[in-house]
Sequence to fold (137 residues):
Amino acid sequence: MKKLLLLSVMILFAGMMFGQTIQKGTYIGTHVFTVTLNPEVTMDQYIAFFQKKVIPEIEKNYEGWKVYLLKGLRGENANSYGLLFVIKSQKDWDKYYNPDGSENAQGKAVNKKMQPINEELSKLGLSETKYTDWLVQ
Fold:
């Protein structure tokens, strides 16, 4: 019985590991941001707000999108913060953006929904972002 339980756990774990691969056709957005904090605000407060409020709000409003907060360890962006957007398909990206990268009507509607959380974030600081969008080949 113990062997069967152990085997079941191993199969479940292996399935979870291989289920996390990035599929061909996935859109990936990499964003590096520089933050200018408001007085009396720490970077830890800004990051905590981003993790607890901003990212869940993005994932709630943009169907098919997953967002990860990144911290640069080495290289050109060491000690910087970034975001990794994983978007399941071009269809999921096209729901919100035109081919030239501008927001379409649905994207503008979502951005309007996001405005309160963005205003709350701006009370902590302002950020400047550089990004690149990628298509997994």
Q: What stands out?
A: The longest strand covers residues 27-37.
